[in-house]
Amino acid sequence: MIDDFSRGYPVKNIDPELTSNLKIDYCGKLNIFDWLSDIPKGIQKEELYEVRFKNTRKGYFYNTNKIRLNTGDIVAVEASPGHDIGIVSLKGPLVLHQLTKHRISKKEEFKSIYRKAKPNDIEKWKESIDMEKETMIESRKMSSDLKLNMKIGDVEYQGDKTKATFYYIADERVDFRQLIKVLAERFKIRVEMRQIGARQEAGRIGGIGSCGRELCCSTWISNFVSATTNSARYQELSLNPQKLAGQCSKLKCCLNYEIDSYMDARKDFPSTDIQLQTLLGKATHIKTDVYRQIMWYLVETASGMNIMPLAVEKVLEIIELNKTGKKGEVVAIKTSPTLATESLEYTNVVGQESLTRFDDQKKTNKPKRNKKRRKIPHKNENK
To answer: Is 254 buried (19+), middle (13-18) or exposed (0-12) by CB count in 10 A?
Structure first.
């Protein structure tokens, strides 16, 4: 069994005999930092607990049996039907804050925590996790045989192996009633189909982004915010769909990371649609370096077209002069800083010889050997 971090912890490292106080120190979007853990509390009955399952699925359960639970305990919780296995991720007053954050009513009927997971529960839970990949592959073949326009991206078994949830993506409405019958008959389980979007599928499958790091949607993003091309325009990015799209074929979520700082920095920038009237000729905006406060303009001079970088202050000054009917003077600024060279009296050149030092040697003229070639008589010479 390979490492499975989709539940926030590599399940293969769980010892069935030690089902309490797992060290949840792995980076993942299911982790919650309890910033009230070091605050002393009085004796109180903590009834509501947050329990996490696979990927982004979490649930809130009542501790009706008054079991002493801590963060990291593996518990058996109520499900429909049967029971499910999860890991306690949060307890205490922060659970109520999580309900408010996710807009869950406190009057909702929450299910119960049965007990701490027994060794038999852990073994059956591990077996169900091992079956998920094989089940997903077979279910894809079945949907292909039924010619259904859908893709099954993930499968999650319930802890007692009586139910499985199949996550799929589809562009149109799919009639999968026949598929449910085939799956239920093949795997002898109760089947639930749940549709997800392309972003959720990329978060479940995972991968490496163009930045070289693991996808944000598979590590820490749990709530997706829509990204638009306006975010790319504010950051002066080329509107190239191949570069702006992620593995989900949607715009990258990281386009929203720095958009606020760009918008704040561009508050004093003039509009890029305004043409400047200068002493050299008309100037049209090309691009902008937001953080360096530089705007590049294409100036139409008598000798041709020239690209000149102008400071934002100078551009605003020219615009004010144009409003009065005057033309401004173009003063280009230096965009690349000059590097200061230092003269050293002594340098250690050990191991710094030129790699091409043998290529520049002069070729010596070797004397040519006079080979006496045997003359072959022509066939007509013997006659």
So the answer is: middle
